[in-house]
Amino acid sequence: MSEKPKRRVALKVLGATLGAGAFARAMAPLASWSKDLSMGEFLQKHYSEMTPDEMNTVMRRLESNTKRDYGRDVNIRDIRPSEGVEFGYALNLSVCIGCRKCAEACHNENNHDRRTNNSYIRVLEMEQGSFDMEKGNATYTHAVPAAGKYYMPVQCQQCSNPPCVNVCPVQATWKEPDGIVVVDYNWCIGCRYCEAACPYHARRFNWTKPEIPAEEINPDQAYLSNRIRPQGVMEKCTFCLHRTREGRLPACLEACPTGARVFGNMLDPNSEIRWVLANKRVFVLKEDLGTDPRFFYFFDE
Length: 301
Hints:
The chain is an alpha/beta fold.
């Protein structure tokens, strides 16, 4: 028998764990959108179990669904990690100006819902000398940078010990060999356990079907990355794996006007990220939790 739990078994286990009332509330989003699932979608295998032919069939179906629902031709690929690669990201807080260009680029690149203006990146306006994220302001509207403030963009930290993975009852999320934590959006049951477990507020839940004009859809998509996510599932940053696994940079980095962001292969001794780790005093958020992030922060001084 496969080690991956079947959906019906996982739902029974979840129900027994939560109790009837809590289970009904947790499963409400699933009930609201499951009526739109085809039998093929419901019986689809876990990502790790699909053969190349089965994966190809799924991706062609998703492309057809996107054309039907959004009126746009897209190309969805299954881009696998490369050997000898472990991605890391660093952010220079000394030069970040809080302009949110990174969040805007994430919004556009990853086909986020336009109505909610969703993004995987939150930019916190912080008091200089303070590291209390609870007091950070993510909804500022004044001109930036403001006196006495610094800015801390926060997104998925791609933890080596990700608590979100540990709590998923159906193994819909996992850490890939290159360090990227991914989600099989067609396997997620929308229980939101991962959202509750993440200490960085890095998970997003699709309460409604995403609204994206056809002309704004990014057609360059990957199954585990920026394809349009269905209603009722969790989603997250994937370090733009549809770009980075092919040697390009994340969209948020390319959009940064000050060069605050550094990305690369931590296993490559000649990479810029390795230089930063060796020459700067880097730190990670909430180190005491033992999540071991692969997203680092540093100041010039």
